[in-house]
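Worked Example 4.2. Read the sequence first, then its C-alpha cells.
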Amino acid sequence: MKNKLTIYKPNELIEIVGNPISAVGLVTYNFLLHKFQNLKKDKIIISMSEIFNVLEISDNYDELFNYLDSLRNISVLSRDSKGKLWGGFNLLSEFKKVGNGVFVQIPDTIFKALCGDENEKNLYYTTIKLLEQRIYKCSYTIIFYEIFKKYEKVNIPIFNLEELKNITGTSDRYLEYRYFKRDVLTKSIAEINKFDSKYNYSFEEKKIGRKVNEIKFSKVEKNLIDIPENLISEKLEKAILKARKNRFVDEVYSAKAMEKLILKYNEEDIIKGLNELYKYNSEIDNLSKILNSKIKEIVDSKKVKPKKEAVKVAKQKVEVSQKSELDLEKEKLSILIFKIDLPTRERIMLFGELSVVEDLESLEKLRDKIKS
C-alpha cells in the first residue's frame, strides 16, 4: 500500500504563505489529503497506528498531535495559477482523539478542490508521490519539490525573493541573503537533485544594483543522450547541462543530434561549441546546424593556425640568416679598418659608420669607400 501512495494535490495548495511547516508535518498533511480524496469525505476518522505505519514515525502521540495542531493553526492566503488571490483558509478545520483514532476535518474549500471532476484535475492538479518526500532532510526541500512538480511541464516562473521567504516561512529569518541562499536554496536544490531521477534543477540570481531581488529556477533533463556511457564524459555532460540553461538552446535540444556530433567531432571541440551557444540570445531554428557550424569553425581555425605559425617561423629563420651574414661581413670589415694605416680620428669615424649599417648594400658602399 505504501508504494502506491499518490494524491492529486491542487496547485493552489502548493504555494502556501504563512507559518513554516516542518518536513514531517507537511508529509502528514499530504497523507491526510490522500485519505480525504480517496474516501471523498471532508471529515474522517483514521487510526493513529495507520499514520505511524505509513509515515514511519515513532508511536509518539504527543508528536503527532503537535503536527496536527500546527496545521490547524496555519492560516494561509493562496493564489491560483495566474497569480491571483484564490482565498484564505486554515489547513485543518478540526481534529480530536476518538478512541484509538483521530477525527480530522478539512475546510470545504480544500475538500472541493480535492474532489473536483476529471477536467478540473487535469487542469489544476499535480501528482505528488509521498514516498519521495520522506527522503528529504532539509525542512524546506519539500516546499521546492512541490513547486517544481507544479511547473514540471512548463517553465518555472521567476520568484521575488520576499515571495520565496513567505512561501518558506523564513521572512523573519536569514536577514542576510547569503544565509538564505546557503541554508534554504542551495541545500534544498542539492537534495532534490540527489533523488530526482528526471531533472537537474538550478537557480540564478537576478539583481537590482548589488542586491539580489529575484530568483530564477531552471531545469534540464538528467538523461541527456541515449547512447553508451563510454561515449560521453562528465566534462561533456556538464557542458551540455550548462548550454541547456539557455532557454533558446533547451527549446530545440535534440539527443539524436548530440549523438551524431559526439560521433563526428572531438569532445574538446564540442565543449567549446556548447560554451559559445550558452551565450546565444535569439531563437534557434536548427540546433544541429548551428552547432555543427560553430564546431567546424573551431576545427578549421586549428588548421589555419599551424600554417600561420610555419610562415612566421620561416620568416624568422630568414631574418636570422640575413642578420648572421651581415654580422659576419661587418666583422670582416672591422678587421680591415684595423689593418689599414689610417689616422686615429678617421678610424673612429669609420667604426662609427660601421656600427649604424643595417643591411648588406650599405655595408658594400662603406667597403668601397674604405678601399678607395
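Now turn to a second chain, presented in exactly the same format:
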Amino acid sequence: MVAITDTVKRRQDPYPSRLPEERWLPRQDKTVWSQWCPDAPLTAQETDHFDRDGFIVLRDLFLEDEVKELMQESAALRGGKRELEEGCIITEPDSDEVRTIFKLPEQSPLFNRLASDRRVAGIASYLLGADVYIHQSRLNYKAGFTGKEFYWHSDFETWHAEDGMPRMRAVSASLLLTDNDALNGPLMLMPGSHQHFIGCAGETPENNYKSSLKKQEVGTPSHEALTKLANKHGIHVATGKAGTLVLFDCNTMHGSNGNITPFARSNAFFVFNAVSNRLEDPFDAKKPRPEFLGFRGEPKPIEIASGKLSI
C-alpha cells in the first residue's frame, strides 16, 4: 500500500525529485505573476529582466545611514550582543565560526522592519502577484580566510522536496551587508536556469538538514547537469556595494565560492512565498524540516511598510 501511495504521489507531483536517476523537467509556473503598470515598484525593463534571467540586481535603494545601521545590527547579532533563539545558529563545517543565523525578524526589530519594507517585500509581492509571507529568513556570513562555499543548488528543489512548497511562487531577496566583489565569495547565478527543474538523484536521509546546512550534498545537481546549464546560460556574479539588493526566483541555480580573502562577506536573506502557496506535506521526505527553515503555520500577509527604516 505504501508503494502504491508513493507512486500516485509522484505521478501527481509536477516537480518530482530525490529520484533513482536525475531528471530534467520544464518549469510549469510563471516567473512574474503581475502585469506591469506605471506604478509598479520595478520598471518594465527590470520586470522583463527578472522574467528572462530569473534574478535582478538593484542598487541605491537604501540610504547610506540605513545600510550602516543594518551592518551594525548584523555585527551585533554575530558578536553575541543579542539574545538569539536556541537552535537558530549554524556554524562552519570545520569551526565554531558563525555561518548562518536564522529567523531574522524574530531576532531583531530592525531586520523585522526591513522584512516588511516596500523596497523588499513590496517588490516580492509585485513579482509574485500575491500577498506574501516569510517562508525563511537568515543572516549569511562568510568570514575572511575561512568562509566556506555554498554549493550549486535550486532552493525550490529543497523547499519542495523537504518542506512541501507546492509550486514555484516564491522569491528570495538578498541584501548585501558588506561589499561583495569577485574575490570574496559573492553569489553566482545562472541566468535563465529557472526555466529548468532538475529532479535530483538520491533519497532524502533522515534529518538531512543537520548536515546540508553546513555542506549540501543531497539535492544538488550532477556535474554533468551543471555543466550543461552553465554552457547554455552562463554564470553571472552578483557583485555590489553594501546596500545592493539581489532578488532571484526560487528555482534559479545559484551558489558561491569560499572566501580566502581577508574581507568578510555578509548578507540578509529573506524568502517571500505567496500566501496561496503555503506549505503542504514534504513531497520527497518522511517529515518536514524544523520551522525555522520553513514556516508551517497559518500564513499572515506582510503589511508593506514605507518610509525610512526605523524601529
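Notes for the reader: Residues 46-277 form a domain with the Jelly Rolls fold (CATH 2.60.120.620). The two ends are 55 Å apart (CA to CA).
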